[in-house]
Structures are given as C-alpha cells and as structure tokens.
C-alpha cells in the first residue's frame, strides 16, 4: 500500500477544476481561495508524479491521463459521500440534507402541491431543489451532484432505480374556436404538423408527446421552439398553433385567464409517468422509497 495517498480534498479540487474549467470558479465552488486550490492540485501532482493539468494564462487544459484520473476521483468522492449516507440512513428516516433534481415541466406544477405536506410530515428533512432539463439532471445524478430526480418516464437515465408516482396524461391545447366544435378527445391523426408547437431539445416532454402521437413525420415538421410550457401557452393564445400540455400543468392553472381549449389526447399511450429515480444500489434507497410514498400521497 502506498505510504502517501491523495486526500479527498485534493480530489475535490481536481473534480471542481474539471467541471468548471477555471481556477477561480473551481475555488469558489469549493469555498477556498484560488491559491489554496492551486497549491492543493500541485501537491496532488507531486504526490503521484504526473502532470494532470496544463496551465496557461488563458486556458486550463487537462492531460488525457488527468481527465481519466478526474473521472476516477469523481467516483471516489461519490463512494466517500455514500459512507456518511449509510450512517444517516441507519438513523432517523427522511432526515438531514437531500439534493433533488426536478425537470422544468414538473417543478412549477407539482412542487407547490407536495412541498407543504413534506415540510409538515417530515420536518427534519432538508430538501434542496435543483431545476434542470432531463439530460442535465441525469448527468448531475451520475456525477453525485444530486441524490435523486423527479423525472418523467420513459427516459434513459443510466443505472438507476425507480419508484413510479402516477401517470400524467397529455392534452392537446388549441385556440378557442379552432375547430368550432372540438371533439371530447383529440386523435393524433387530426393534428396539423405544420402548426404543432413543442418544447426545444433537452425537454423530455417533447419526446413523450411525439411518441404518444406515433406519427414519425411530426418530428420533422413540428416546430421545436418553446423554452417553457408557459411560453408555448402564450404562443397558442396568440393563434400561432397548437401544443401539448401535461395534465398536471392544466390542473395547476396554466390556462387560467386564457382563451385556450384543452382536450385529452386519444392515443394508445397518452401519458407520461412521473417517477422518483436515484443511483442504483444507493445506501439511501429506503429513504428514497419513503419519499416517493410521501410524494404520491401528497399528489393525491
């Protein structure tokens, strides 16, 4: 066994520099001065006898081996963090800090409904929220930056465990009077691909909507231009086209004070599944399942 081993603090500095690409920003993320972070990395390089980072005035460039070691350091830090999580999980359930990612098509509609009950029923839980698109949230989960995600399925998020909460049905939203007598349910075949407005890439709701319609030409013809569901609603309100909205957004009042009509999508799979996901084999699995149960109850 080596006489000297890298410290967790040195590994933390290395990963922060890899993530931020800037000494100042990495130091800020680690709550240390830039000189402290730089000295810690030089000590690490001296310890292992390898140059990890090429330093210039303008850029920070990792060597190929430096990148590999940073990836390994990320895993080591995650394992070290899970040691404390194991001790915490053995104590009082749903207590202490938990970092949860939430995607933008869920956060503003579901969180106001469930957070008050979570605070009431589990006052010792300190839930820190981070809103990110599905790809970014899954990346943060695998890097150990968050502990779990409130996500819409189906979506590939790597090696994760899942607790499904409920199905969230998709609705077609269109300006009032277009058509004059809309049916109670909207068939995907009747959608005008040239007027369909969807969220930009990175939002899994776009893929859920296209998959539910099962019309390949929609992916090529639909306009991917909305940055949020509220933006899409404003576009529809101004007669620019139609869109698809999840039921939770409608129930939360996203169409309030508009002249938009919404009807359920009449398809074989007309819903997305809201779920809580976390890293596979996490020592806090019992906490996550308990949290999922609490969210399911709070959501009704």
Fold and architecture overview:
- The chain is of the alpha/beta class and 300 residues long.
- It has two domains: 8-87, Winged helix-like DNA-binding domain superfamily/Winged helix DNA-binding domain (Arc Repressor Mutant, subunit A, Orthogonal Bundle); 94-300, D-Maltodextrin-Binding Protein, domain 2.
- 44% of the residues lie in helices and 23% in strands.
- The strands form two sheets. Strands 3, 4, 5, 6, 7, 8, 9, 10 and 11 form a nine-stranded mixed β-sheet that branches. Strands 1-2 form a two-stranded antiparallel ribbon.
- α5 (107-121) links the parallel β3 and β4.
- α1 crosses α3 (34-48), α2 crosses α3 and α5 packs across α11.
Nutshell version of this structure?
The protein is 44% helix and 23% strand. By secondary structure, it is of the alpha/beta class.
Layout of SSEs?
Blueprint lengths: L7 H13 L2 H8 L3 H15 L4 E3 L4 E3 L1 H26 L6 E7 L4 H15 L3 E7 L2 H10 L4 E6 L6 E16 L20 E4 L4 H10 L2 H6 L1 E4 L2 H9 L4 E5 H5 L8 E5 L6 E9 L5 H15 L1
Parallel strand pairs: 3-4, 3-5, 7-8, 7-9
Antiparallel strand pairs: 1-2, 5-11, 6-9, 6-10, 6-11
């Amino acid at each position: 066994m080596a006489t000297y081993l890298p410290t967790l603090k040195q590994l933390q500095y290395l990963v922060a520099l890899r993530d931020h690409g800037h000494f100042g920003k990495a130091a800020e993320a680690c709550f240390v001065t830039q000189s402290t972070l730089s000295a810690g990395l030089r000590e690490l390089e001296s310890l292992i006898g390898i140059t990890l980072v090429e330093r210039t005035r303008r850029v920070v460039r990792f060597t190929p081996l430096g990148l590999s070691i940073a990836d390994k350091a990320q895993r080591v830090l995650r394992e070290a963090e899970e040691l404390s999580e194991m001790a915490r999980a053995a104590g009082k359930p749903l207590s202490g800090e938990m970092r949860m990612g939430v995607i933008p098509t869920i956060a503003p509609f579901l969180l106001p409904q469930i957070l008050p009950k979570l605070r009431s029923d589990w006052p010792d839980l300190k839930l820190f929220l981070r809103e990110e698109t599905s790809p970014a949230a899954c990346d943060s989960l695998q890097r150990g930056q968050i502990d779990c995600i409130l996500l819409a399925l189906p979506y590939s998020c790597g090696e994760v465990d899942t607790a499904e909460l409920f199905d969230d049905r998709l609705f077609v939203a269109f300006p009032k009077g277009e058509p004059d007598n809309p049916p109670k349910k909207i068939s995907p075949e009747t959608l005008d691909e040239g007027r369909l407005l969807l969220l930009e890439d990175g939002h899994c709701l776009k893929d859920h909507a296209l998959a539910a319609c099962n019309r390949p030409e929609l992916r090529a013809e639909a306009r991917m231009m909305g940055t949020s569901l509220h933006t899409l609603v404003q576009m529809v309100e101004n007669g620019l086209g139609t869109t698809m909205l999840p039921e939770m957004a409608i129930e939360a009042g996203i169409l309030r004070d508009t002249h938009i009509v919404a009807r359920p999508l009449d398809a074989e799979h007309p819903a997305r599944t809201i779920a809580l996901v976390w890293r596979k084999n996490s020592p806090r699995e019992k906490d996550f399942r308990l949290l999922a149960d609490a969210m399911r109850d709070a959501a009704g």
